[in-house]
Predict the 3D structure of the following.
Amino acid sequence: MKKRGFIVIISILATLSMVVGSIQAGTIQKIISPASSLQTKTMTYQFSQPSLQGNDLYATIHLAEATGYRTIAGEPILPIVMKTIELPFGTTIKDMRCSFTSQPPVQLNQKITPAVQPVPFITEDLIRQPSENPEIYTHNQLFPETWYSYRLTGGLNKQNILTTFLTIQINPVRYNPASYMIQSLDRITIDITYEPASPSSSSFTEEYDMIIICKDSYAKTLEPLVTHKNTHGIQTKLIAVSDIYSGTYFPAEGRDKPEQIKYFIKNAKETWNITYVMLVGNYAQVPTRYASLETDTGGLYEELKFVSDLYYADLYTSNGSFCSWDTDNDGLYAEWPYPESHPAEDIVDLVPDVHVARLACMFKSEVKTMVDKIITYENTAAGTNWFKRMVVIGGDTFDKSIEGGTDYNEGEEATAKALDYMPQFIPIKLWASLGNLSLNTIQDEISKGCGFLYFCGHGSPKSWATHNNGDYRNWTGMYKNTDMRNLTNTNMPPIMIVGGCHNSELDTAPKNLLLGFLKEKFNYFRVNETWLGSYFKYNYALECWSWVFVKVKGGAIASTGSSGFGGVNIGDHNHDGIPDCTQGLDGWFELELFRLYNQQNITVLGQTYDQVLTNYVHTFPVDTSRYDAKILETHILLGDPSLQIGGYQ
């Protein structure tokens, strides 16, 4: 494998200032000053006149040049333009200046539509109408406060090179709710002056592409996989967790075991130039980190913490310093209290610096199964007929009564879009609307083998299911952990993507039964017309659904899903004629993997998955929207991060 030099770490300083001017639109220019190392990039955009679309209650704003919409719950839905520039890792931003001309103000007859809160599940208690944030809708000032903002992150680019990313969010339309007026840009120019870090040549006494960090007793069982990886040019080193804690390779540092592991990965990156990290062991054997990003505290969908393996991949901030996920040093990681709307208390970068995935094995027998599956898959999958099949499974995830005037079958809309991205695959649609979605059809189609498998609906650690349109009391296509043992697709396993809450809740275990009862007493087992107690909802399972799917002898070769409550945009609240369920949150995340694999030919599993994360950070306001940040932090990749999708030719 080709190696990349490691760039020296420096600090980033940033200042903002505003000046007046004008220039050509739609261009990016780069100027290098001969007298110094300072460089300048100029971004220029010119905008058309926004169009207005009214309805019974609100109006929506459309702009041809928009790359997306601002959709933070309770805030006006406004078009945005996101642009990311790649800079050498460790680059210092010295100055940013903005010049713009604006169009004449436009008076409105209606308020602009507020965004609705993402929906994880459906109950009769769900809020059905948009809710205005009074702190915004009663103020006599333009919202957002500025024409643009920016964010610096650091991580791997598409070539697996550590990079500083400058993401600029332009707000081309600003809204004064009190005066029913919008102000919009005609054109804007942003001049960015920066100083690249001085490249340093790095020499490595040892170089590896991947390290495997495992429970000590799994090491010998993993040796055939190490040999296989080395044979295919993935230079791999096996590390027992005890060697991390004892400082065998690098001095042990960190406040607890997860931080010691993260520092080890950082040292391995800087000393051995690694790109991939495979964790082998369940949530306790190779301990997970809990993220404290809260949602719906005190409500129906309360979630105060969840496991996040992204913690291990996010090593650096944009300037190359260690990304601890605990910037206020209070022992809570990725902390974002609810319902405060200010940015998170802990600043997290969220862009991966290494490709991390986990084999959540609980026993040696599971390790052996996974070693055999990975070796067989990579050696035999290429050119097979079964790999050319793609199975998608979905129905009507949410009741039209909460959609705001549409009646989309959300699971079918998302899976249809996935098939659009993969035209060379033979489509197998198991949809509630087709009347062919059942346990038997799921078993039959997966057992024939397929290259990709996509479930989109509702989930828990022990099951997945969806609904028929109009019937939200009965489940359709219920598929449980216990059903997976009957799959007969041995040596024909797909990459599996699941849309649903808690399917990848990595820390689920029998102990949750006792803990749940101690916390909720007999309410833990409550059943009523609109909701199930925690026992039925998600807690009591030996291992989570997504991992069971991977560890069985048939099943999947890898899977990705959410370790907590998911989030789905419903209806078409921006009135652009496209289902919102495909334009953000879980739906966008899931679909982006298919797009990257097929349209951009990114065919190594960990790289494909992490490019989804990186693109999400550069497309959505993850620093101001807790739900966007949560989508990234909850998603877990279970499998081999260096897996060659479709096998080696």
Summary: The longest strand covers residues 181-195. The CA atoms of residues 396 and 409 lie 4 Å apart.
